[in-house]
Each structure stands twice: as structure tokens, then as C-alpha cells.
């Protein structure tokens, strides 16, 4: 049976996050040849509708309201429910982001629906789709098959390939009105801790530093390498605890979970809690002075050496490749 699938597009600072396009690709698989309807929520999102269509959404509905300028659980769930009542989808896909993790269980429980969270791949499509998700901090993978009922899915950023963009494609973008009232949270101001550079959770390349980086200044060569590679800087909790960098950079069990194409770990020992956040990266390069460091067990390429010598050498070589 084909399905109608609603896919939430996530907007940050006026632009669609990449995970929105990955969610459309996931929605296509879930639909099994049915319809994928994009959903945009915000105060001025109508203009982004066609971008969702160019990435494969069949049509888009938007809910615009001044109270939806920034995310609140109450506001977005009211907007979602207005669209849900109109569209009555068979399934819903969100990104496994801070927003998706907050909103999806709230609405799924309200609708008495199942929720499959943190999906990293989908085998097959439609009714025969099997959803793969990591469990026990990435040490094992669970395969989930859905029997019936409407279902919610959150997909982990950077794992499901978006469909090829059809440049210039336009389509049906329809506005839905919703009453947004009785908000229990009012966002007065959004203060971002790290606004520069690439978003860590969506970065294709991450250069991460640990306690071996030794100081705040020690992160400079890592930042330079990340810049040359068009990537983001991350960190172990050891580095954050030592005040070498902000906790927003922390990767691991109690930090961000990332799956870039390339993860360079410099001066990180490879504690199990760190591995929980990065061991599913596609290629892992470890740089450590200690040849016995645990990080080498998960690394595809290991460099035994001083990061302050190795990182500048890598930066120079990558600069040459780019020249
Ligand atoms: P260390 O273990 O001190 O390792 C530093 C490494 O740098 C060493 O291997 C050393 O050989 C190497 N080194 C030193 N100098 C150089 C040099 N010049 N060049 C190259 N290599 C060098 N940790 C996380 O990262 N993320 C989490 O989310 C997280 N959550 C946790 C949750 C709980 C409940 C607990 C108990 C712990 C958690 N931790 C987490 C902490 C974790 O257990 C480790 O303590 C931490 O990851 C260690 O950080 P590190 O590898 O930077 O430091």
C-alpha cells in the first residue's frame, strides 16, 4: 500500500537545514511510491517551499505566524496539528535534531502513534521498509519493521543521502492557518554559543581535539585544518572540562552524535563515551602520541605522533591540493 508522508523541513536563520532534504529522501522510501508532503513552520517560510519541492517533495504546506518565529514545543505542535487535521498523513518524518527529538515524541504520544527514532538507514520501501537504528550507544543496530497505524520517524543527520536536486523545479505551496495560543514558553532572545563555521551535527568533515590539545590556543591549528577542509571543529569532554573550548563542541554520549564522512581525532584517547558519539563516522583518522591509545581501535587510519607537528603538515598538504 502506498502512503502519504508528511516531512518537516527545519529552518534555521532563514534557510532550510540539510537534514530536511535527507528527510524528504527518507519520506519517499516510507511512502512506497505514495505522496510526500513537505511541512514548513515559521514566521516567514513560504519562500522556502519550492526548495523542498526541488529536493523531491510532491507539494508543500506552510504554517506562518509571528509566534512561530522561534521554536517552542507548544507553538510547533499546534501548527503541526492544524496540518495533521487537514492532511491526515500515514507517516511523519522529522530530523533527529534537537527540534525533532523534542517535538516528535510529544505529537506521536498525543496521536497514540509509534515512533522510530534515530534512524540511520532504510532498507526496502513502503510496507516492506525496514528501519535501522543504533542502540547501546552505537554498539549494536536494531532493525524495526512497522505493522500498521500512523508512524513517526526521526532520521539521524548525515546518514540518508538526499535526492538529486531538480534545479528550478516549482510546485504547489499552500498556506494553512493555525491558531497559535496559550504558549507556555515565550522566547525573548536566542543567544548562540558558536555561530561561526559549519554546523557540527551536519558537517561532512570534523576535526576534533581532546585533552592532548593542551590549551585554548592549542585548538588554533585544528581550526585551520577544519577551515581548509570546509569542516567543523569538535572536541572530547576532556577538552571541554579543561576549559579549552565550549561544551557546544562536545561529541559523545553526553554531547553530540555525529556521522561525518571524515572524522579526525587529535589528542583524544578514545574513551567509550567519546566513541559513542563518533564511531559511526565513515572514515576515522586518529592522531595520538600513544600507540596504545584506544582511539586506534576504531580508526581507519592511525598516525602515531605529536598533533602539533602532524596537524600543520596535513593543513599544508590539503592547501596544496586545493591550490
Ligand atoms: P584523555 O583521556 O586525557 O586523552 C588525551 C589523549 O591525548 C591521550 O591519549 C594522549 O596520549 C594524547 N596526547 C597528549 N598529547 C598529545 C600530543 N601532543 N599529540 C597527540 N596526542 C597527544 N567524553 C567525551 O568525549 N564525550 C562524552 O560525551 C562523554 N560523556 C561522558 C559521560 C559520562 C557519564 C562519563 C563518566 C564520562 C564521559 N566522558 C565523555 C569522558 C570520558 O570518559 C573521557 O574522560 C574523555 O573522553 C577523555 O577525553 P580525552 O580523550 O580528550 O582526554
From TrEMBL:
Coiled coil: none
GO biological process terms on file: fatty acid beta-oxidation using acyl-CoA dehydrogenase
UniProt cofactor note: Binds 1 FAD per dimer.
Cofactors (names): FAD
Gene3D superfamilies: HUPs, TPP-binding domain
Domain of life: Bacteria
Domain Electron transfer flavoprotein alpha/beta-subunit N-terminal: 5-195
Pfam families: ETF (PF01012), ETF_alpha (PF00766)
Residues making up the signal peptide according to the UniProt record: none
SMART domains named in the record: ETF (SM00893)
SUPFAM superfamilies on file: Adenine nucleotide alpha hydrolases-like (SSF52402), DHS-like NAD/FAD-binding domain (SSF52467)
Keyword Flavoprotein in record: yes
CDD domains: ETF_alpha
Binding site for FAD: 211, 236-237, 250-254, 267-274, 288
Keywords for the protein's UniProt record, in alphabetical order: Electron transport, FAD, Flavoprotein, Transport
GO MF, one annotated term: electron transfer activity
Record-stated family: Belongs to the ETF alpha-subunit/FixB family.
Protein name: Electron transfer flavoprotein subunit alpha/FixB family protein
Organism: Paenisporosarcina cavernae
Amino acid at each position: 500500500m502506498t502512503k502519504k508522508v508528511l516531512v518537516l523541513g527545519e529552518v534555521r536563520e532563514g534557510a532550510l537545514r540539510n537534514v530536511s532534504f535527507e528527510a524528504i529522501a527518507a519520506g519517499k522510501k516510507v511512502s512506497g511510491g505514495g505522496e510526500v508532503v513537505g511541512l514548513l513552520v515559521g514566521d516567514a517560510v513560504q519562500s522556502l517551499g519550492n526548495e523542498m519541492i526541488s529536493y523531491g517533495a510532491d507539494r508543500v504546506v506552510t504554517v506562518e505566524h509571528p509566534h512561530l518565529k522561534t521554536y517552542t514545543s507548544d507553538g510547533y505542535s499546534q501548527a503541526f496539528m492544524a496540518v495533521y487535521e487537514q492532511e491526515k498523513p500515514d507517516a511523519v518524518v522529522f530530523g533527529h535534531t534537537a527540534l525533532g527529538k523534542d517535538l516528535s515524541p510529544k505529537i506521536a504520544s498525543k496521536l497514540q502513534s509509534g515512533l522510530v527514532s534515530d534512524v540511520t538507514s532504510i532498507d526496502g520501501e513502503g510496507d516492506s521498509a525496514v528501519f535501522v537504528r543504533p542502540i547501546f550507544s552505537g554498539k549494536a543496530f536494531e532493525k524495526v519493521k512497522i505493522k500498521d497505524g500512523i508512524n513517526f520517524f526521526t532520521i539521524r543527520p548525515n546518514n540518508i543521502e538526499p535526492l538529486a536536486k531538480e534545479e528550478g523545479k516549482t510546485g504547489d505551496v499552500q498556506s494553512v492557518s493555525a491558531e497559535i495560543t496559550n504558549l507556555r514558553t515565550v522566547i525573548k532572545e536566542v543567544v548562540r554559543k558558536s555561530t561561526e563555521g559549519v554546523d557540527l551535527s551536519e558537517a561532512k568533515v570534523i576535526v576534533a581535539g581532546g585533552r592532548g590539545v593542551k590549551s585554548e590556543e592549542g585548538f588554533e591549528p585544528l581550526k585551520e585544518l577544519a577551515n581548509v577542509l570546509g569542516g567543523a571543529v569538535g572536541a572530547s569532554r576532556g577538552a571541554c572540562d579543561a576549559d579549552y573550548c565550549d561544551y557546544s563542541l562536545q561529541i559523545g554520549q553526553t554531547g553530540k552524535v555525529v556521522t561525518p564522512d571524515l572524522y579526525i581525532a587529535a589528542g583524544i584517547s578514545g574513551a567509550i563515551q567519546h566513541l559513542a558519539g563518533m564511531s559511526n563516522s565513515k572514515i576515522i583518522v586518529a592522531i595520538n602520541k600513544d600507540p596504545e591509545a584506544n582511539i586506534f581501535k576504531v580508526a581507519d587510519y592511525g598516525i602515531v605522533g605529536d598533533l602539533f607537528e602532524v596537524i600543520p603538515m596535513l593543513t599544508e598538504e590539503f592547501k596544496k591540493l586545493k591550490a
